[in-house]
Amino acid sequence: MTKTTSNKPEINEQQAAPNVCHTTQWYEGPTIDEHTLHDDLTRHFYYTLGRDKVGESRLYLYHALALTIRDRLIARCRETRLKNEKHNRKQVAYLSLEFLMGRSLNNAILNLDLEDKVRCALNEFCTALEDVEQAEHDAGLGNGGLGRLAACFLDSCATLGLPVTGYGIRYEYGMFNQEIDNGYQVEQPDNWLREECPWETKAPDYSRRVKFFGHVEVHEDLKGRQHRRWVNTQDVLAVPFDIPVPGYNNDIVNTLRLWKSEATDEFDLSEFNAGSYSEAVAKKNLAEQITMVLYPNDASESGKELRLRQQYFLSSASLQDILAQWIESHGQDFIGFTDQHVFQLNDTHPSIAVAELMRLLIDEHGLSWDKAWSITSTTMAYTNHTLLPEALEKWSVRLFERLLPRLLEIIYEINARFLLQVAQRWPGDVDKTRQMSIIEEGDEPQIRMAYLAIIGSYSVNGVAALHTKLLTNGLFNDFYQLSPQKFNNKTNGVTPRRWLHHCNPALSDLITRTIGEQWVNDFSQIQKLANYADDEKLQVQWQQVKFDNKVKLAELVQERCGVEFDPNMMFDVQVKRIHEYKRQLLNILHVIYRYERIRNCDTATMVPRCILLGGKAAPGYDMAKQIIKLISNVADTINNDPLAKPYLRVAFLPNYNVTAMETICPATELSEQISTAGKEASGTGNMKFMMNGALTIGTLDGANIEIRDAVGEENFFLFGARSEELDEIFRNHNPSRIIEATPALQEVMQLLTSGHFNLFEPGIFQSIIDAITSPTDPWLTAHDFASYIHAQDEVDRCYQDSARWAAMSILNTAASGPFSSDRTILEYATNIWQLQCNATPSLA
Ligand SMILES: *Cc1c(COP(=O)(O)O)cnc(C)c1O
Question: What distance in angstroms lies between residue 643's CA and the mean position of ligand 1's atoms?
Answer without folding.
Answer: 34
